[in-house]
Please model this.
Amino acid sequence: MKIHDISQELFSCEVFPGDPAPEKKTVLSMENGDKCNLTSLSMCAHNGTHVDAPYHFYRDGRTIDELALEKVVGMAQVISFDGELSDADIKRLLAPGTKRVLFRGHAVVTLSAAEELVRQGIWLVGVESQTVGPKDGPEAVHLALLKQEVVLLEGIRLAAVADGTYLLNAAPVSLGGADGAPCRALLLEL
Model:
């Protein structure tokens, strides 16, 4: 079995414009005579490779700790695409029965594509960008997907992964009451 780590390293990750960048601080250091090494960190829940929960855009939406893990762990289809995805692209590219889809490349999920993903019964949409939807206006796409509790996996790295079907594990850190959380996203070739 081959395992692909499709996550960004947190402290060197791409950061969405306006979000605080992650920072680490050495609290204890064996090099300084302490008995152990201890790191403190400060970050936005949407830094690096992360999962968005409906609460990100909906006051009464599910928080990250309330997400069904079945949505973030299971078989996923990787599809290469560059440019704006349309509803016709989704119909053409998505294999029947797919519940989780990861777009490899510079794919931008448009509102029509988001609506088609909902019609197709998708549980999770993953992109390499730090946001699903256009960078200059991702809100409408987020609203369309999160309203239907489609989980968003953002900031993945798929350059070393071929198109195909894999077992995905993108379980987020369980941050009670949070709108999103980092995850160590893995694809397994079975």
Q: What stands out?
A: Residues 111-119 form the longest helix (9 residues). The helical segments are 87-93, 111-119, 139-147.
